[in-house]
Amino acid sequence: MILECRAWDKEKQVMIEWSDIFFSDMSPVTGWGEGVDYERVDLMFHTTKKDINGKKAYTGDIIASNTYDGQPMEIKWDDKQTGFYCHDSNNNEDDHLNAMEIEVSEIIGNIYENPELLTR
């Protein structure tokens, strides 16, 4: 399995895709060479799941939960449970909304570009 991620560039306020982070000698997006400035970016890891529309799901993505009538939930990694879980706007984890929830829900945004989605 290949670890795949994308990153939020905190300085430029843009999403950087996987290929732009790691697979170019000089990325036109970041201007980085061989190294990645991890202080400048927040990495968002691929869950290996896709939403109901076939879109890849990453940590930090927000789904409209099919289980809870479209309630927005953030996809997070849980170190203690060593798995991906969905959290509501109060950061409450629902043990029943694990990574499988992603496959029956729709990704509607992410916490960087659409933070307001978690406040509704």
TrEMBL record:
Give the source's domain of life in one word: Bacteria
Q: Domain YopX protein, which positions?
A: 6-118
Which Pfam families does the record cross-reference, listed alphabetically? YopX
Q: What Gene3D superfamilies does the database record attribute to this sequence?
A: YopX-like domains
Query: What SUPFAM superfamilies does its record include?
Result: YopX-like
Protein name (record): YopX family protein
